[in-house]
Amino acid sequence: MTLPKHGRRAAAPTPARFRPRRTSETRARRARTDVPRPDATRTVLAAAPVATTLPTSKRRSVRPAFSVIAMAFVGALMLATSVPALAITATDSEPRASVYAPVEDTISLEPQHLEVASEAEVPAHLAGSYAVEAAPPPIFSEVANVGSVTIVESDLVVWPVLNPENRSSGFGPRSAPCAGCSTNHDGVDFNPGNGSPVMSIADGVVVLATENGGGLGVNVEVQHNIGGELITSSYAHMQYGSLQVTVGQRVSAGQQLGLVGSTGQSTGPHLHLEMFGVDGVRFDGFAWLGERIG
Ligand SMILES: [Zn+2]
To answer: How many angstroms is it from 139 CA to the middle of ligand 1?
Structure first.
């Protein structure tokens, strides 16, 4: 049976003997903490070094005031950093804090977006001018030992020699100037003087540069894109060792190719200039250049 044990333990004299002492100690502690005695308050405040020299009455009034100022300062900081500038100039007369700008101010910003949209029309204008200045498609030409080359259009043409007015033989039918010379002259003979520079009539690509041109002697051929048309110029009878260009090289109008000489089938120093299109048919280079140079 367990009942007798419980009964005996509940009636044990040991807990009853200590109960009055515990009650009196607890009552004494409560009396020290619950009753606001001046000595106890002074002891607690003395632990704080700031308030040691102030009387008790001032200490109680300064601390809440300081807290209110600090809270106001923090509140002002939060307001200044979080509220948009427009909210300060709000027309709302009521003294209430709001992080939202008035609707009227938001609407007044709309014209700025419209100004940006008007400036966006400038690139469209520039794009139009780019379209006008767009380069025409280049001509693709197959050059021996070089491969396919692109020739961009350039309509600037110049005379191939310094003194184009000095000529000995024009284009077309003629009486042969020498035995073996053609009676139908397929070029123009310029006589600027021996050793004068021979220049490319326009921008282009060198497609032939040889010192063994047969009757043409030291010969250079340059292809041009003039008005979208493939034009070839051929310079003959130049001096040995005077070539300044090689096959595949890009040259510009007026660039020196070699020097006037008398190599090949020639009776004297002169430049024999031939010009032809894609059909290979020769035409009057002097007349053609004269029309474009003026
Ligand atoms: Zn000739």
So the answer is: 29
